[in-house]
């Protein structure tokens, strides 16, 4: 997946090591007298180390990188003691990364490690904006259980329960997908099938993409693979159009499941251009 991650200019780096304490996640180590990023998995891309470098050798760039993994980070952090644990939790809280903060505290609880009292009550995840763009800002959408209205002129309620939904924008580690029933659909389907929200979307987490026009198919497979690996997905429903190119939805999902070594039953529906389930 493409995300923000630190880059170290080797020519500028003098090997002073001042950046290392600023990275409690352990993503930076001093190797051969140069600061090195040792693992994409450990770098959250928030840049706590930037202000520590006197040579301006560290910057944030967007590139293809493995998704940040809080569980792997915590396994590395707890070995460094209570001070490092607190520094990491503070780092997450200061950057409003409440989802990762909750994952970190859950790791401490599961492994019978004391959770600092000032972080015990931090449970509500506030929407955060990636790169200043609302299209990437993760959020849950509360939906009341609305009973069908007999009045045909009444507005139909949306069943969308999270954002974003475009595969290129989603974060595989987002809390929205934990224990989720997934609905993975070609992006033409909701316009063709009139009962999309009531029949398919209700109670499911939506992911959309176009297997013909999108140019990031390989990254889609990688992203879905990571999502299947890190989340306990309960079920997968696939929707695609009857046109031949749209069958790519099923192929992409199947390949991602194989790469993730997961066996999840797929319900696969084909929608006709006239808007009927075939």
In words, what does this structure look like?
The chain is of the alpha/beta class and 278 residues long. It has helices at 70-77, 82-94, 98-110, 189-192, 196-201, 217-230, 248-260; strands spanning 2-8, 28-31, 34-37, 58-64, 139-140, 162-163, 181-186, 205-209, 235-241, 266-271. It has a 4-stranded parallel sheet with strand order 8-7-9-10. It is elongated, with a radius of gyration of 22 Å. Mean pLDDT is 83; it is low at 123-136.
The strand line-up of the biggest sheet is: 8-7-9-10
Number of strands: 10
Residue runs with pLDDT of under 50 for 5 or more positions: 123-136
Number of helices: 7
Radius of gyration, in Å, reads 22 Å
- pLDDT average, as an integer? 83
- SS class: alpha/beta
Q: Into how many domains do the coordinates divide? A: 3
Please report the distance between the alpha carbons of the first and last residues: 34 Å
Q: Major sheet, described briefly?
A: 4 strands, parallel
> H/E element string?
EEEEHHHEEEHHEHEHE
Classify the helix fraction into a percent range: 25-40%
Approximate strand percentage: 15-25%
Shape: elongated
